[in-house]
Design goal:
The chain has 353 residues and is α/β, with parallel strands linked by helices. It is built from 15 helices and 8 strands. The chain has a 6-stranded parallel beta sheet, sandwiched between helices. Strands 6-7 form a two-stranded antiparallel ribbon. The mean pLDDT is 96.
Length: 353
């Protein structure tokens, strides 16, 4: 069988990356509609609107209202078409970036994403997490195209809370382990093919970068002096992890994370934080020699390494079994290693501490 890798059309990163925005808009067709979340609308949004207005490139603005539902995607697509934009510019956190993905596809326009934090690897991918009208998880929308451009201004990323960067490191930490698990289990990536050698190499580079640079990057951000280590970690969190998971594959760590999100006690725990605990449970299940090193490293970063760290210190076996059963559901992008049963996941989670 052939292999397939998926990439964004262009990835731009650096402390002055926003200076490239106008050039990218012209390259992709011209005027843009700006779709942002509440936080971006009060911080970065006005700066971007002024920049685009001065260049005659702003067609319209909107703030994401409510959940990232299919109904809202249709509303936003209609707004794009009404204002005559050729490009949709999604700005902010994960929910609005996913909303921009769905709306741009429905409207048939090019998409530029500007993340406000390096907390997940979603910006580069062709997958949008869709919600119900009440804000609960609904389904994954698999898009025909990856974003045309992902523009990561690290001066913006550096102003986000440190916890967001650390959560992104937790998400990136699992990338190589899950891509390698996908290869071993014979799973297919999002494109429906086995992971290529390039995808596995990118996933491994992601892991190596995290291990080499994460602690220094966190120290740099704490001291408000982001440097080379910070730049490399942002690249690992967003680009390397994004390419690694989409073209390599997701596995047991993310499946356990998916199950844990259903527990009320885990509300407010960030995606990458739950992925870290899922990774530790995954390594326990595989009896991996790397477990002690990864656990110690995660603990140094302040990531969750035990049930107590995610509000589950007093969780009953019944509660954990509920999450583990969801982890073992054969939903899209949800898979665990062959032979793993819900009771095994409960035992692996408890073994984390």
């Amino acid at each position: 069988m052939h292999t397939t890798c998926q990439f964004p059309g262009r990835y731009i990163q650096g402390p002055t990356a926003l200076q490239a925005l106008n050039t990218e808009l012209v390259r992709l067709g011209g005027r843009a509609m700006l779709l942002q979340d509440d936080f971006a609308a009060k911080s970065l949004g006005p700066r971007l609107a002024a920049q685009l207005t001065e260049a005659g490139l702003l067609a319209g603005e909107a703030v994401l209202s409510g959940p990232n539902s299919e109904a809202n995607a249709s509303v936003n697509a209609q707004a794009i078409q009404r204002c005559g934009a050729q490009v949709l510019l999604g700005v902010g956190g994960g929910k609005v970036l996913d909303a921009a993905k769905a709306a741009a596809e429905l409207a048939g326009v090019a998409l530029i994403l500007i993340p406000s934090a390096a907390s997940t690897d979603a910006p580069c991918s062709s997958v949008a997490v869709m919600q119900t009208g009440e804000g609960a998880f609904s389904h994954y929308r698999f898009l025909r195209h990856n974003p045309a451009c992902v523009l990561v201004d690290t001066s913006v990323i550096a102003s986000a809370p440190l916890r967001m960067l650390v959560a992104g490191i937790g998400d990136a930490l699992s990338t190589w382990f899950e891509a390698e698990e996908s290869r071993q289990q014979g799973w297919l990536n999002i494109a429906g093919t086995p992971p290529s050698a390039l995808a596995l190499a990118i996933a491994r580079q992601c892991y190596d970068t995290v291990m080499d640079c994460a602690l220094e990057a966190v120290a740099q951000l704490r001291n408000r002096q982001p440097g080379e280590a910070f730049e490399r970690i942002v690249e690992a969190n967003i680009l390397l992890s994004g390419l690694g998971f989409e073209s390599g594959g997701l596995g047991t760590a993310h499946a356990i994370q998916n199950g844990l999100t259903a527990l009320p006690a885990c509300r407010g725990i960030l995606h990458g934080e739950l992925v870290t605990l899922g990774l530790l449970a995954m390594l326990n299940l595989a009896q991996a020699d790397t477990y002690p090193q990864v656990r110690r490293f995660a603990q140094q970063l302040g990531l969750p390494v035990s049930l107590a760290d995610v509000g589950l210190a007093d969780a009953s076996d019944e509660m954990l079994l509920q999450a583990a059963t969801l982890a073992c559901n054969s939903a899209p992008m949800n898979r665990v290693a062959a032979g793993v049963k819900p009771v095994d996941i409960v035992a692996a989670l408890r073994a984390c501490g």
